[in-house]
Amino acid sequence: GREAAEAGELLRSAAAEQIGAGGALRARPADAQTAERSERQSLKLLNDAKKAAETAARQAQRRDEARKRAELKAAYTELLEGQKAVRDAVAPLVGKPADRRARRDLAEQGEKQPGLKTRADELLNQTQELREAATFELAHRRLDEAMDRAAKMMAAANTAAGLRSATDSAVRTLERLVTALSAPEDNPEFR
Q1: Please, which residues have CB within 8 angstroms of residue 152's CB and are 6 or more apart in sequence?
Q2: I want to staple 24 with a disulfide (CB 3.0 to 4.6 A). Which of 29, 34, 87, 185 is the partner?
């Protein structure tokens, strides 16, 4: 970006000052004052170039972190929508007898749950920053427990209130993860 170009220009100017200093020392008689002035100016320009390069590197890192965060947020949002769909599909069945149709619907949704859990695990494992963030690790443990509980209840055609609790818990946890990825300045764990 602009800072990298600025650093390059400062380096070229520092090199020109060094050339000037060398020329002043080769002159007959040697011009020590001009050489020293050029050397000091060259050193100043090199320090300025270093600062500009460091600024450019920090900005590039922030852009990369923002890109990663946006990608993760999109992936977690997609996961959240899938979990909401499962929750909404089983919600009308909670507390009712599991007739043949209910068992079929539960089995259908129960087949989706492990895929959602696998995707959540993949998201956690593919991103070192998330694995190292204690809050994300805790959220994923809760998410795993809720998704496992929901999957087992659906597989057993269990329509007890715990099914709603498990699917709601998974949705709430995913909502919190999406929120955490939306506001990195409020979430130092992610950085």
Answers
A1: 158
A2: 34
